[in-house]
Specification:
Layout: E1 7-11, H1 14-24, H2 28-34, E2 40-48, H3 50-62, E3 66-68, E4 81-86, H4 89-100, H5 106-124, E5 140-146, H6 161-173, E6 178-182, H7 195-212, E7 217-220, H8 224-232, E8 237-240, H9 250-257, E9 261-264, H10 282-299, E10 307-310, H11 319-327, E11 340-341, H12 347-353, H13 362-374, E12 379-382, H14 385-400
Helix pairs in contact: 1-2, 4-5, 6-7, 7-8, 8-9, 13-14
């Protein structure tokens, strides 16, 4: 398991660089000196001992790069330290043999920094793809099918079997590459339901769609019993908002079926997640969370190539958290796994546009997904398939035209 937790940050202005450097604990003079140098792509590394951090800085300086360090690290004080490592992909590769000759954990540090850079480059170059079981397309739109009486946007319109099947047909015809069937509302404040009730809502619909449609079906659940029944009924994927924490037998189900599984971040539970959520650094906190959950899943038999990450827009996040996640979404590419975004018609869009309800958030959803595509997201969970497919086709064509 990695011990230094490196991840990429793309810094777009000196003001942003200064904010990050101050948060890191860099001295005032150091912030002034390094803000311009920190522009562009840097690697944030945590878990360093003071002596390791100082050696890292000297090696990067010798290659023409640099590493920003907290003020106390210069005094070789004890305790874990963080660093912003500034360099090129080539320099990060050259760091490996240099640190192989050093003591302590420095050989491991060099390997992890270089691997982080490689994974990020591969993801941005399109070399990190969605799990093979979901198809060969470079990006896909996932249509949301809530078969519940109390979903935050659909409000029970597809709670009946025939309405749900017809809605899935419409989304497939509009270009959905996968349909995500959920039988338990996860809107803020929602209460849970029984296993029996969720099975009754989900399994008949999954079975019908798997038999009729030519696209994969996902099951949106945190109950292993529902996931197992849905997979046996023809589902191809598990979408778990608890990242396998809600039901510890879920990992066994996913491993036994060899299916893709989406690990989503959520602070708290649907019932209490919006009660003053807090983070030190939301993107850094989520990067550490995903690192731990991916390692946990792999140890339980889930293949890495079957794992998808979802930062959980709106799940235990305030407006500023959601915006930071979308703006810095590419940081999660450091793990070398496909990223899914679920911003569709959520309340943070309404707070920005000051609308009166979910029905007014389509344009905001399309804008958020287009930005997320540019930041590396490759799966887009939406209520409105046709509009998002069209926007993403334009975004993809523009990217390919480079």
């Amino acid at each position: 398991m990695p011990i230094f937790f490196p991840y990429i940050i793309n810094i777009e202005s000196q003001a942003e660089a200064a904010t990050i450097l101050r948060r890191l604990g860099v001295s005032g003079d150091g912030v002034t000196h390094m803000a311009a140098k920190a522009l562009g792509r840097v690697i944030h590394v945590s878990g360093l001992e003071a002596v390791e951090a100082n050696i890292l800085k000297q090696e990067m300086l010798s290659m023409g790069g640099d590493a920003a360090l907290p003020a106390n690290v210069w005094r070789l004080q004890e305790g874990n330290a963080e660093s912003l490592v500034m360099g090129t992909p080539r320099q990060f590769e050259d760091l490996v043999p240099r640190l192989q000759k050093k003591p302590f954990r420095l050989p491991r540090l060099g390997e992890e920094i270089a691997a982080c850079s490689r994974r990020y480059e591969a993801a941005m170059n399109g070399e990190v793809t969605v799990p093979a079981r979901l198809g060969k397309q470079p990006w896909l739109v996932m249509g949301i099918l809530n078969v519940t009486p109390d979903s935050f946007h659909d409000r029970g319109r597809y709670g009946q079997f025939y309405a749900a099947v017809e809605r899935a047909r419409e989304m497939a015809a509009a270009g959905a590459a996968i349909i995500d069937v959920g039988g338990e509302s996860t809107r803020p404040g929602a209460a849970g339901i029984t296993l029996k009730e969720e099975l009754g809502r989900v399994v008949p619909v999954v079975e019908a769609l798997a038999a009729e449609l030519k696209i994969p079906i996902s099951v949106d659940t945190c109950k292993a019993g529902v996931a197992r029944a849905a997979l046996e009924a023809g589902a191809a994927m598990i979408n778990d908002i608890t990242a396998l924490r809600g039901d510890r037998t879920m990992a066994r189900v996913a491993a036994e079926h060899g299916c893709p599984v989406c690990l989503m971040h959520m602070q708290g539970t649907p019932r209490d997640m919006q009660k003053n959520p807090r983070y030190r650094d939301v993107v850094g906190d989520l990067a550490g969370f995903f690192l731990e959950r991916v390692e946990w899943a792999e140890r339980r038999g889930i293949r890495r190539e079957n794992i998808i990450l979802d930062p959980g827009i709106g799940f235990g996040k305030k407006l500023e958290h959601n915006l930071s996640i979308i703006r810095r979404l590419d940081s999660f590419l450091s793990l070398g796994l496909p990223v899914m975004i679920g911003a569709s018609r959520k309340s943070f869009l309404g707070k920005i546009s000051r609308d009166r309800g979910t029905e007014e958030r389509l344009i905001g959803t399309v804008a958020a997904n287009t930005i997320a595509y540019g930041k590396g997201a490759r799966i887009f969970r939406v209520h409105d398939v046709a509009e998002n497919v069209q926007a993403l086709k334009v975004a993809a064509a523009t990217r390919e035209a480079r």
